[in-house]
Write a structure and sequence with these properties.
A 5-stranded mixed β-sheet has the order 4-11-9-6-7, with no helix packed on it. It has a 4-stranded mixed β-sheet with strand order 8-5-3-10, with no helix packed on it. It has a 3-stranded antiparallel β-sheet with strand order 12-13-16, with no helix packed on it. The protein has 271 residues and is mainly beta. It contains 2 helices and 16 strands. The chain is rod-shaped. The chain has helices at residues 33-40, 68-71; strands at 13-19, 55-61, 84-87, 91-95, 100-108, 115-121, 136-141, 149-154, 165-175, 179-180, 185-191, 199-201, 213-222, 230-235, 251-256, 262-270. It binds calcium ion (CA) (4 copies).
Length: 271
């Protein structure tokens, strides 16, 4: 007979083994007599044998005694805390000539189990390639580890005058039961280090003609292209020639679209 062991706290228990239909005389009952008597109503004389065709042997199973400490109530298991993963800041900054921005991701609120999270760049006003290198990967923490993890985003040092530009960062797909914190997105600002281009205007020497008016064209030039829209005001002033009698006064604003380096101002010479 196989008796199942378990770790449950429970009272002692019994079961019955019955012998029947033997061609041998069934043996005198042994064992826990009073238990037997209660169950079978047999003669209570301590010396009597039983000649019944059947006999029951009651087995009193004492639960195996466990070490004392294992009989104590098991402590309620503490819920596991896998931690919250997020950026250390909502914003990072780097000078354009700073080579690379270092971004930190933290694990707080729990260190149970191995966890990981994916990071990636994308979006923002900066341009992949000309301003920064697209970056993605996975950060991993082993069980018990709450140390900060970092990754870097390479920044391109160009010679173009630009506005400060941004790179968007994102964390996705936490594993191992970890959750994302509020700072699951962040921004790198790339501070431009290129001065605006110098602006200049050409001299013009041209015959005025004998009648009517003649156009005089002045080239206005940027020393380098800019990624920004650049504007400049112009205005004619009297020199030895006089507005009205020698030339028509003019003024206005020149606009260089991003990338443009030359614009032309047309003035009219009176003849
Ligand atoms: Ca740019
Ligand atoms: Ca740039
Ligand atoms: Ca630069
Ligand atoms: Ca630049």
């Amino acid at each position: 007979m196989l008796v199942n062991g378990d770790t449950q706290e429970e009272p002692d228990e019994t079961f019955v083994v019955q012998l029947t239909n033997s061609n041998a005389g069934l043996a005198k009952f042994h064992g826990h007599r009073h238990d037997y008597q209660r169950r079978c109503g047999a003669d209570t004389d301590a010396d009597s044998n039983t000649n019944a065709d059947s006999a029951r042997q009651r087995l009193h199973l004492r639960q195996s005694r466990r070490p004392r400490q294992s009989r104590r109530r098991m402590p309620t298991p503490t819920p596991q805390a896998f931690g919250t993963l997020q950026f250390s800041s909502a914003s990072y900054s780097i000078n354009e000539n700073g080579a690379q921005a270092t971004v930190t991701v933290t694990r707080t609120g729990g260190v149970d189990g191995a966890v990981s999270v994916q990071y990636s760049t994308g979006g923002g006003t900066a341009t992949i390639g000309s301003d920064y290198a697209a970056t993605s990967g996975t950060l991993s923490w082993p069980d018990g580890d709450a140390s900060d993890k970092t990754f870097t985003v390479a920044v391109t040092n160009d010679t173009l005058n630009e506005l400060d530009e941004t790179v968007s960062l994102a964390l996705n797909n936490p594993t191992g039961g970890a959750s994302l914190g509020n700072l699951s997105s962040a921004t790198i600002t790339i501070a431009d280090d290129d001065a605006p281009p110098a602006i200049s205007i050409s001299d013009v020497s041209q015959a005025e003609g004998n009648s009517g008016t003649t156009n005089f064209s002045f080239d206005v030039t940027l020393s380098a292209a800019s990624s920004q829209t650049i504007t400049v005001d112009y205005l004619t002033l009297n020199g030895s020639a006089q507005a009205g009698s020698d030339f028509q006064a003019a003024g206005g604003t020149l606009t260089f679209a991003p990338g443009e380096t030359t614009r032309t101002v047309v003035g009219r010479r009176q003849r």
